[in-house]
Amino acid sequence: MIRYLNITPFYLLVFFILLFSFSKETNAQEVNYKSYSLFVYNFIKYIDWPDLNPEEDFKIAVIGDSPVLKELQYLSQNKRIRGKRMVVKQYADAESISDCNLIYICSHKSSSIKILKEKYKNKPVLLIGEREGLAKKGAALSFVTLENDALHFDVNKKVLENHNLKIANSLLALGSVVN
Q1: Residue 4, in any domain of the structure
Q2: H or E stretch including 9?
Q3: What is the CATH number for 139?
Q4: DSSP letter assigned to residue 6
Q5: Does the pLDDT at position 75 exceed 50?
Q6: CA–CA dist 118, 68 (Å, integer)
Q7: Collapsing DSSP states into helix, strand and coil, what is residue 116?
Q8: pTM, full prediction
Q9: Is residue 98 part of a domain?
Q10: Share of the chain above pLDDT 70, in %
Q11: Which of 38, 30, 74, 79 is nearest to 58 (CA)?
Q12: Domain range spanning residue 70?
């Protein structure tokens, strides 16, 4: 009799975090951006949006130019979000973004957080910052690279609540809560 492992999505998320935290690939930058995109994809699975229309695509806006864009576009070819098609588009600036569920802010566009905070105030849009410290400035989540090059993330619960987004406790436990 063959026994199958009962692998829950939470354990898969932990696995990916550990896998990319301890990875010693020669092309570290590429691996790092792949891990950023996998983190984003898994964040989506552990955050609830109110009233997602089942007929519409799950829209991700990427502000600026980052290798994460290419990685997210690659993921969108094969992955779905709650049965929805994932559409990833690049925008030059915060003003040009229209309808979306998630906004990924590239490092060199971090100053856009001020505009985005105001534009999407009280709207169910997840703001994720590539640069460390953006969760303290208005993003719901922001990435942090630890001393050992492990990728980690900060969570701003207040921002999530203001955007009417609910985060799973299992994801919250993996990040560092900031105000």
Answers
A1: no
A2: helix 9-21
A3: 3.40.50
A4: -
A5: yes
A6: 25
A7: helix
A8: 0.83
A9: yes
A10: 83
A11: 79
A12: 9-177
